[in-house]
Amino acid sequence: MKVLVAYMSKTGNTKKVAEAIYQELDGEKAILPVEQVVDTSGYDLTFLGFPVQRFGPDPKTVGLLRKHCQPGRDVALFITHAAPEEEPELGEWLDKFRAAASAANIVGVFDCQGQLAQGVKRMMLLLPVRRLRSMAKRDNSQGQPDAARLARARGFAREMQAKMRGEARG
Ligand SMILES: Cc1cc2nc3c(=O)[nH]c(=O)nc-3n(C[C@H](O)[C@H](O)[C@H](O)COP(=O)(O)O)c2cc1C
Questions:
Q1: 95, 120, 135: which to mutate for ligand 1, most atoms within 8 A of CB?
Q2: How far is the CA of 169 from the centre of ligand 1 (A)?
Q3: Ligand 1 site-directed mutation target among 78, 80, 81, 110, most atoms within 8 Å of CB
Q4: pLDDT tens digits for 105-133?
């Protein structure tokens, strides 16, 4: 099985998750910033990772998801966000990533908290967007993704590969 892990990461959190997934995969594999990915058609499975920006994927992310999630492709999404995993709106945010990827077969979706960089937090506190200001004020994301979350990401990698092998057999 040939697997690609492609990610977008501005402050390093999604990259950490990408590397945890990549390390856990067996078989032929590659890892690349998503902007450097030209074509995913040579891979049996593509992991695509992005941060949440303003309650979902930003426009650039939507474009990249559409580009790499063509019909007939198998993709696994992984998303990081500064809000805790219990955030009530998180389901809606993740659904927006699913929607942008929906032309492909979405094998699974992983998400975890990733720390809000200090510069981003300062910027959020100044923005005229009440929800972002209140998120920055309530921020409890420092140190994320921690070891437990990265272990969960490795479990996700194993689960996705097992699922693909099962589908290939069945
Ligand atoms: C412009 C911007 C908007 C963001 N909006 C949200 C948001 O709506 N909800 C959230 O939970 N995190 C938000 N974040 C935080 C990031 O999703 C989080 O820190 C993520 O782990 C960053 O990943 P990265 O380090 O790979 O860039 C935002 C970050 C930026 C820069």
A1: 120
A2: 38
A3: 81
A4: 999 999 999 999 999 999 999 999 999 99
pTM equals 0.97
* b/e sequence 64-91, b meaning 16+ C-beta within 10 Å: bbeebbeeebbbbbbbbbbbeeebeebe
Q: 2-115+142-163 belongs to which homologous superfamily? A: Flavodoxin domain (3.40.50.360)
pLDDT band at 139 (very low <50, low <70, confident <90, very high): very high
